[in-house]
Every structure is written in structure tokens, then in C-alpha cells.
Amino acid sequence: MTKTNLKPAAGYLVIEPKKKGSSTESGIYLQPSNDKPQEGTVLAIGQAYLTDFGIKKDSGDLKTGDVVIYREWGGKEYKENGVDLLLMKFDDIMATIKN
């Protein structure tokens, strides 16, 4: 897991997307597709915030280090020290992958 110096604003997360491309058990490299990854690791979590209706929204039970599935076009891309990161709203997280 990459360390980040970013501290997300209220209602946002910093996520490191899963790398594209992989290899099979026999070592054959598989080309990455043009699809954006939809899985990544949570690196930082912003504070809760109040909606326009006064409802408190927080990150739920998310913790740094959790692997999550997020909306395909969610988030703002950002590069820090050569590492691709995403700044994403709490609402763009669809699921947590439990080991």
C-alpha cells in the first residue's frame, strides 16, 4: 500500500486504483484492457459532512487499507510521486472486498 501526503476534504477518500494488466499462473502476461479499474485500496479518509438537508454522511465502516469497488467514472485522477491516485466521494464506493 502506498503512503500519501494527501488529506482529503470532508466527504472524500483517496484511493490507489488496482494496477491494470496481470499474468497467469504460468507467467503469461495479459495485456491491460482499455477499461478503467473499478477496484482499489483506501489510503486516506476525509471527515464526515452535512448534506443540504442536514443529514450527516460519513464513510461508514471504511478504514485505510480496505479494498473497495467503486463507480467506473467516479473520482478525480491525481498523480503523487509518480503514483496514480483517485480523489473520490463517499457515495461513489459500492462495496468493500473482505478477505
Question: What this model shows, in words?
Answer:
Keywords: Chaperone. Heptamer of 7 subunits arranged in a ring. The structure is a single chain. The protein has about 100 residues and is mainly β. It has one domain: 10 Kd Chaperonin, Protein Cpn10, Chain O (Roll), CATH 2.30.33. A six-stranded antiparallel β-sheet has the order 8-9-1-4-7-10, with no helix packed on it. Strands 2-3 form a two-stranded antiparallel ribbon. A hairpin with a 5-residue loop joins β5 and β6. It is elongated. The model has no long low-confidence stretch (mean pLDDT about 85).
Secondary-structure map with pairings?
Blueprint: E1 12-17, E2 22-23, E3 29-30, E4 39-45, E5 49-50, E6 56-57, E7 67-70, E8 76-80, E9 83-89, E10 93-97
Antiparallel strand pairs: 1-4, 1-9, 2-3, 4-7, 5-6, 7-10, 8-9
Pfam families: Cpn10 (PF00166)
Protein name: 10 kDa chaperonin
Keywords: Chaperone
